[in-house]
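Structure ticket #2291
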Amino acid sequence: MNMKLLQARGAQRVAGCLVLGLSFTLLGCAPLRVERTAMAPVTAPASAITLKEPLSGMLSNQDGFSLPAGSRWLQVGTVPQGDTYRRDGALFIVNGRRQREAYLVVNGGDLKGLYFPGESLYTAVPNSTRLVLEPK
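Resolution: structure written out below.
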């Protein structure tokens, strides 16, 4: 093969990689927007909430999550954005580029975001959503 043909094939491969990389970026592989924040644990007996209806949401990097109806959540602490709730009896795992345990961050009955306790990180839910809860 001559040198010009090898150079042309190399250029095609580079162009293909660039297009593929740009496609992944446009398809939602953007990084998750998070902020470091400390959680203050609750000192009194934890309050609990139970979801009456299922809820699905989307994070800033387009990763989705689902919360099942009937799931029970115990308050484990607070962050500046609201109260943090851990799922009772099961882990709530957010699947994305990484799997992470997450807590709900609730303020005034609205889901404001998620807290990742293993990393002390908070991420806002782009559209604050009213939680439909079982009566106490």
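Closing remark: The longest strand covers residues 121-130.
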